[in-house]
Amino acid sequence: MNTPPLTRAGGAAATDDDGDYAVYWPRSPRQVARTALAPRLDTLDGRTIALVWDYMFRGDEIFTLLEEGIRRRFPRARFVNWREFGNTHGSEEHAVVAALPRRLRELGVDAAISGMGC
User: Fold this and answer.
1) pLDDT tens digit sequence for 9-58
2) Phi-psi region of 90 (alpha: psi -120 to 50; beta: other; left: phi over 0)
């Protein structure tokens, strides 16, 4: 294999023992263009909130606590339980995630909380 010699920042050859090497950023150029985030809702009161879970790390417990806390602050908030959507991490992951936009529209969802991987 033909490996190019290590070089110093100015292009001069570097030896294996001088401790001065060129460094390259390991990330590739961005493959997907950034898109703007959806605008923040002015309130959750009277809104429908989807709870979307990857069936990992106690989401069933955590979503119950989140729902209780949100209801205390926004009593007219409505929730669509994570069971409506399926597992967003697993053997059916691609189908579940692909169906999310349609399901969210069908259920009249205004906002979503998605999580809980560890």
Assistant:
1) 555 555 556 777 778 778 878 788 888 988 999 999 999 999 999 888 88
2) left
Domain that holds residue 97: 48-115
* DSSP annotation of 88: S
Confirm whether 89 is domain-assigned: yes
Q: Are 49 and 77 in contact (CB under 8 A)?
A: yes
Tokens, residue 94: 């691609």
Output the pTM of the full model.
0.67
Q: How many domains does the chain have?
A: 1
Per the document, the length of the chain is 118
- Cα angle for residues 101, 106, 107 (degrees, 5° grid): 100
